[in-house]
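Annex B. Sample input.
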Amino acid sequence: MAYLAAVVILGGVFGFLGGLFGVGGGIVAIPVLGVGFGMSEQAAQGTALVMVVPNVLVGLWRYYRLGGMDPRLAISLAAGAVPLTFIGAHYATHLPSGPLRIAFVVFILAIAAYMAWRTFGGARMAPHARPWPWPYAIVVGMIGGALSGLFSVGGATFAVPAMTLGFGLSQVAAQGMALALVAPGTVVGVVIYALAKDIDWPVGIALALGGVFGVSYGVGLAHRLPDRTLRGLFIAFLLASAVALGLKV
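Annex B, continued. Sample output.
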């Protein structure tokens, strides 16, 4: 019981971070589950998804209530993501754990480096000169869905800079849209990972119980922080996750 109570508290921390950065908490849960719990990459991703599902739904509702979400973009992202999430998750459960983990680390570092360059480098992060038409959100959803299937949380990480640069959204609005992208796909992902027996259910459920309490506080803080500060914290968050996961490679 003490062990599960500690996992619930850990889930609360993951939920807070997921709400703060609009990624459901899985991107930090996966390194912890892989390094601290000794899980394979597939098991870490599948178990994290159990926690991510309620976190994403609660976070999405909170971002919607606080404003800044375009329903047309949100629906387009979700529609594009679902079929590609299914395909990506199917392949992820059949890939060797080591190469999959390395690919995930490289992916996170690439996103963090690009966002850092656009935010703090010579080219400041700014919306596209002419925002993309809304149907392009379906393409973003498809790419994000494939990444979500492969890495269980990659879609949200990709969607945040894509929605900021391509559609001219603020960091906090982009984070809300990222949750819209991954919301239906997380349910699909859980089913695929469960069928492959790559989920530790007691740990995943305990993390989910803690996560639903923490996520609302993270969303609230995200809406109070300046855009540039939130973006910098998001970059630092990605780098820390990549380093932690790299220790297990």
